[in-house]
């Protein structure tokens, strides 16, 4: 056990002993400021539950519950308390692989909603779509389920099954999915007709920026004269990776500004002297967060054309702060602004050309429009 933990335990024991009497608690309530009083109230509740509850409960369990409740009180679905297992799962996901069914979820209008399925995963193959509402997980109603709890219930050992009850419009259907080890290759591309390159980014993890640059170089060697960047159903990921991608496309200047609650601004910029070729970016309601950073930069700088439907609208920035060796808090610490200082949080980005993708998907009319737009610029 670390010296810090021993010291904290000793201080907590002294405080809990003092607060064990109502007299001691009331004395401090009268003597200290409101912030201190609130803190002491939490410790008093901890002492009362620990000493009086009908069953023995560990202090670790009670403190974890307190922290979780504290973060949940922010009413921000992107801020969560992560125990050791959740933190490990989070790190694995951003590093490029994790166990589950391959859907990224969030909350919209206080409902558990699919942000986007990940290509080639059980969720995508089963036909789950961006915007689907998950109303039950293995028969359990998700109405009062926190986002992190829902993620934990959907994930599980490879080969095991999970049943998601999905509501789409007025229709409700059960999807039985077999979990697999999700290996995420985030960048794929090819050369299309008329020397127009096509690059698809499925999400932004630690490898996305480098992989995007390599794919660009590969297509440039084949004589690429214009590029379609497909960010449809891209739920986002790491901010720095989205900046690296945007910096290959937009001219020198701001890509995104991160603004904290006290007004401090950190601007991430591109150093590209001159854009190399015309750009068309495909977006839809599953394009969120980091993908909206790229789309917003392309639109605001005028370097390209956004085609598709309005994006998801997640314009906040989270950071993971370790509390100790076994837990962390993922906390919203800032909002981001596009190069023209637009905040898209809860609003989304309207494309320059709006085209709905037909349910039948006989042909990709959004991609066809992107090729048409780029062809006119060559």
Automatic annotation (TrEMBL):
Q: Which PROSITE patterns match?
A: PDZ
> Is Transmembrane helix one of the keywords UniProt gives this record?
no
Keyword Cytoplasm (UniProt)? no
- Which Pfam families does the entry mention? CtpB_N-like, PDZ_6, Peptidase_S41
Q: Which InterPro entries does the record match to this protein?
A: ClpP/crotonase-like_dom_sf, CtpA/B_N, PDZ, PDZ_6, PDZ_sf, Peptidase_S41A, Tail-specific_protease
What's a Gene Ontology MF term here? serine-type endopeptidase activity
- PDZ domain location, by residue? 91-169
What EC number(s) has UniProt assigned to this enzyme? 3.4.21.102
Top-level taxon in the UniProt lineage: Bacteria
Assigned keywords, A-Z: Hydrolase, Protease, Serine protease
Q: Name one GO biological process term.
A: proteolysis
Stated family: Belongs to the peptidase S41A family.
Protein name in UniProt: Carboxy-terminal processing protease CtpB
Query: In which organism is this protein found?
Result: Sporomusa sphaeroides DSM 2875
Which gene codes for it? ctpB
